[in-house]
Amino acid sequence: MQIKMREVAATATSPSMGEYMKSIGIIANPASGKDIRRLVAHATIIDNNEKVNIVKRIILSAQELGVKEIYIMPDTFNIGFKARDDLASARQLAVKVYILDMQITASLKDTIRATEILQQLDVGCIISLGGDGTNRAIAKALQQTPLLPISTGTNNVYPDVIEGTVAGIAAAVAASEIFDLKDICIKNKRIEILNEGGLLDIALVDAVICNETFVGARAVWSCETISDIIVTKSRPNAIGFSSVPGYIDVIEESDDFGGWVKLGHPGETVVAPIAPGVVRPVPVKSMFRLELDRPYRHCAKQNSMIALDGEREIPLKKSCTVDFVVTRNGPYQLNVEKTLRAALKTKFFRKVCI
Fold it and tell me: What are phi and psi of 333, to 5 degrees?
């Protein structure tokens, strides 16, 4: 398959920090951070112009570390085009920047397709700008390529708040392929939802069972109709429904288990931040651990919906059964601090001056 790109030529020669450097990919979702939770909660807003600025900072820092080629997903706001053209006009562009030549559908299909193409191009690292939903879409198609997620969405349990300049540096280190993935990444967990042994869908952070049958605005922001919360990780410093188990017990990404919380009475009340600025008492019946690779069956007592990483996705009819399995089949998530520390030990950032 021939992959076409639109290119702007570099205006300078970038310095090389090593003998070989792979390219990097950027997936910037223009729709991230614009769901209904912006209306019902006081969430931070990162607009698309700021995403353009983040992409520019990624390019500028990556080229200084020796990256020669950068591939960017096209989108309806033209984030990649604007970042590239602004840098070219300012004569700051020292790398070849390609915009993937692919049909835009203005849906998560674009993210999945771009991930597939970037892997075909054998990029050394993919940087994502989005929230949990964006990274879930990437995880559907991602295999061995390291993923560096930058938080620009709503709840953002999966991606971290990372300055674009630092992200570009870390991505360049990963693209050098000097370091083993296990030394600079963590292999993420994910929740696999199975029906009769077949994979229906996945979630990176949480799967929430809602006693509702409509999709509506997709985003889940109220706990009144929720019966179950299944998580790969739970921390009290998180925002969203994964924070509910996080205020009972901490489950780290490195822990070889997940968790299942059943809501309702009788039990106890847990106060947790279910959305930005929205702290609510949540009635909890019980919480138990989910061992890795072991299926846990759920039989729907009524027509309901499964929300994956905050968005309603899978309808369940009454008496329908599905299995939830927590596995280590998620992406290799780049750990920025571990990556930079590993590079320091090899004097990656030092050059000999004559």
Answer: -90, 125
